[in-house]
Specification:
The complex is a heterodimer. By secondary structure, chain A is mainly β. Chain A has no helices and 11 strands. Classes of the chains: A mainly beta, B mainly beta.
């Protein structure tokens, strides 16, 4: 069974940093692109960042570019999101998502349960 | 950049057929595949349709996706509505490294 388990969420002050992790199991992790998608409370889905199978192709939403960094460790079957200079508007449930193929331009397949990030002083 | 616009909400009775639209502004709807995701209350999204009209594994054939280039829109059609179909539905597409979601449509089955 494919599983994606996010961790690292929590309460953080504006301007501080937080690192999310996503542990993958049940599939050949290094064959697939991965993404982070967030959902603010009561709001819709917003794509945050994506990374291809090798880590050589990466993209970010304009709202996080320059502040967030996506990375992956295929040996550890893990995806990461380093979030710096956090703002109130970054407060959301962050989902780890598996792509249908190794290219991050492929559709999204399996979603994790999410990790909540709360930004407040 | 581009936008995907969906109706805020739709409602229909069990057993009926509903169609949710997703209109692209800023580019052609046929230039990149469209996906549809279902999110039931309190749950993570799940993939319903990918690559315009392909059903994800385990999705019943009551769900279908289509593209209409004349209206520059995509549609998700659900036939034989069941109360379990009540959820938020999001369309999604891609352009030049950027993924975009529609604002979501709340489907009520009453």
């Amino acid at each position: 069974e494919v599983q994606l388990v996010e961790s690292g969420g929590g309460l953080v002050q504006p301007g501080r940093s937080l690192r999310l992790s996503c542990a993958a199991s049940g599939f050949t992790f290094d064959d697939y692109a991965m993404h982070w998608v967030r959902q603010a409370p009561g709001k819709g889905l917003e794509w945050v960042s994506g990374i291809n199978w090798s880590g050589g192709g990466i993209a970010y939403a304009a709202s996080v570019k320059g502040r967030f960094t996506i990375s992956r460790d295929n040996a550890k079957r893990s995806l990461y999101l380093q979030m710096n200079s956090l703002r109130a508007e970054d407060m959301a449930l962050y989902y780890c998502v598996k792509g249908y193929s190794g290219n991050y331009a492929s559709a999204f397949d399996i979603w994790g349960q999410g990790a909540m990030v709360t930004v407040s002083s | 950049n581009f936008m995907l616009t969906q109706p805020h909400s739709v409602s229909e009775s069990p057993g009926k057929t509903i169609t949710i639209s997703c209109t692209r502004s800023g580019g052609s709807i046929v230039s990149n595949y469209v996906q549809w995701y279902q999110q039931r209350p309190g749950s993570s999204p799940t993939t319903v349709i990918y690559e315009d009209n392909q059903r994800s594994s385990g999705v019943p054939d009551r769900f279908s996706g289509s593209i209409d280039s004349s209206s520059n829109s995509a549609s998700l059609t659900i036939s034989g509505l069941k109360t379990e179909d009540e959820a938020d539905y999001y369309c999604q597409s891609y352009d030049r490294t950027n993924w975009v979601f529609g604002g979501g449509t709340k489907l009520t089955v009453l």
